[in-house]
């Protein structure tokens, strides 16, 4: 079955986004590490399932080994299901994403969000970066341009509206994401015709 996946570090607002997209309520503020295996839900408006992959990255109170297991699980899930995944939504926190990426860029470590973005591209999975919590960001264009730079795509972000989608999930402001996802879905349907 056609599938859209959601990936993102803990606390970026994935549960909030899931709730807004599906109309179901999800357990926000759950204990870190009490993570779920992939969960499937119907996306009310569209004809595919939405899969929530467990939160990853820094999880306080979760041992390093366990974090690695979760990450490996996500990687395998994406590899095994790449064929049927229509779109991946990589959720980041617009307020902190640049700081987090830069903090982990010490030449050896590749920051998780950047790594995941490239990994999804390698698998040929169309990817939308949902930049959440934009209500907390003042210098919107500057922040989004910086994010392009860190992800290795050429600013300005406005050129990448199929890839960079600023949202405020908490207030249900998701139009940029809806449009980006729709564009990818339609691209693929068009491809199928030929
Ligand atoms: P998850 O761990 O990725 O599932 O994140 P949650 O959905 O549990 O959200 C983590 C925190 O971020 C909660 O306190 C949410 O209320 C908050 N949050 C989610 N979306 C937004 C948003 O658009 N703006 C702001 N300011 N906070 C948000």
UniProtKB/TrEMBL annotation:
Coiled coil: none
The keyword Magnesium is annotated on this UniProt entry: yes
Keywords on record: Cell cycle, Cell division, GTP-binding, Magnesium, Metal-binding, Nucleotide-binding, Septation
Domain EngB-type G: 1-187
Cofactor(s) needed: Mg(2+)
Classification via InterPro entries: G_ENGB_dom, GTP-bd, GTP-bd_ribosome_bio_YsxC, P-loop_NTPase, Small_GTP-bd
Presence of keyword Metal-binding: yes
Annotated family: Belongs to the TRAFAC class TrmE-Era-EngA-EngB-Septin-like GTPase superfamily. EngB GTPase family.
Function: Necessary for normal cell division and for the maintenance of normal septation.
Record's protein name: Probable GTP-binding protein EngB
Organism: Natronoglomus mannanivorans
Gene: engB
